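Two proteins were folded this term; both appear here.
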Amino acid sequence: MLYRGMDRARLDPAYNNLAAVPSSSKLIAEWTARSARFRERHHGHLGLAYGEQPRERLDLFLAGNPAAPTLAYIHGGYWQMTHQTKETYSALAEGAVSHGLNVAVVEYTLAPEARMDRIVGEVRHAISWLHEHLRDYGADPGRIYVAGHSAGGHLTAMTMPLSAVRGAIAISGVYDLEPVRLNYLNEKLGLDEAEVQRNSPMLNFPPMAGPLIVTYGTAELPELCRQSVDYAQAWVERGLPGHLLPIDGADHFTILEAMARPEGELMQVLLTLVRG
């Protein structure tokens, strides 16, 4: 089976972000430590259950004004890497909280325990749960924005049909799952053609949606760059609001700094969405 002329031997490295960034394990360890320090400084509502499964949990960090907009952040890990948790990425809330936004860091069940239909369903349920329960914490349920990285970028795109989502930033995502079905990642995911059809954002555009910013680092793997470019183009060609935003020089992991830092480029984009 070929995808865009690539067989399994070429697709595996084309989608292996950990191998493409030799410092990735060090960067993830640094995020984990940084996130632990963030949780010490910002005592959030940790481990809120939005469903019945052990990983159907989210951590909610409230800003000084809890009625501010809320960013729901969805972590990556190719839907299967157990070392990527909500705790790993608490520090992604640093920039948003410093600007007075609430942040919910969402976790979800991973493959092979969950198939893609269930993973997408859980993340959508998390957004719906926030819409129903933010008021319990003094927050505004009508001002929910979503962002996610890598697998979380894909899952962010899959939340766009929800009326609760006012806008979103999809970071370094995969929007056509067919190459994933044909490469090493599918050993745990077990995707079949029907699941690819149902869960590829590229094949499931909403009739209407809030603004979606599709972003990627220019130093990422060529296939990851292409996925973002193609998806953003198809999104705007359907008359949907949003645009493509390359982050110059960023790789698949360093791009997260553009969201975490208060002055980061993606943080500024989020502020523009919220104020828009």
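Next, the second protein.
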Amino acid sequence: MSDHGRFVWHELLTNDADAAIAFYSAVVGWTPEDMDGPHGRYTVMKVGDRGVGGIMQVSPETIDGGARPAWFGYIAVDDVDAWSRKAEAAGGKVHMGPMDIPGIGRFSMVTDPQGAMVVLFKPLPMQAPPPVPMDTPGAVCWNELHADDWEKAFGFYADLFGWTRTEAFPMGPQGTYQLFAAAAEAGGETLGGMYNREAGAPHAFWLFYITVEHIDRGLERVKRHGGEVLGEPMEVPGGAYVVECRDPQGAHFAISGYRKEQQA
């Protein structure tokens, strides 16, 4: 089975890696493991013995240039160079790369035509453990695009990755919330959703949801450790509750959990 078009990693670029590592470890239960990367320390955040994401410090020059702490999703492609060119031809923009991560793979950072950033990634062949089940506390369980125009955005991603539409839910004045799935050859499972962003959001962006064992206790930990809760928990199909948050450095993320116990 091909991984083309699937989210295979999530990464936080931040101006205070130590503080971010402490925050997410406390809030969602990740265990950090440092490694040497091509640009200095890189911290893999783990659920048990399996990595689910990474945290890296950005340079002061990058912050001075206007960059802000943010999470990014890595989407697997068969050929980073070819799909970077295809993204540009479809109206996207390549901001970094393509380039190699020694011993890991090849990547490029691109924005879609509406400005939301993703990372195109082809890992080197290696024996990888199975992914963490989405309902496991600490798993990144949902990928959500806040778009200027979700229908046009969907066309861009469908052309690149073969994504298909699944269920759609009405959201009143905000229109439709559209779920999308990987191509059949990449497993066909639902990967996330997209909709038109709220009027107060400054630009299109991807938001990533992390599973917690209990939504109310998760929100209490966000607040206790210096994060901000951006609204009230909202129940979604299946009975879970979700809410958007902001970490102490300003990066947006969301948590998802039930009002009953979930076991790690």
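The chain has a mean pLDDT of 92. Residues 7-123 form a domain with the 2,3-Dihydroxybiphenyl 1,2-Dioxygenase; domain 1 fold (CATH 3.10.180.10). These notes refer to the second protein only.
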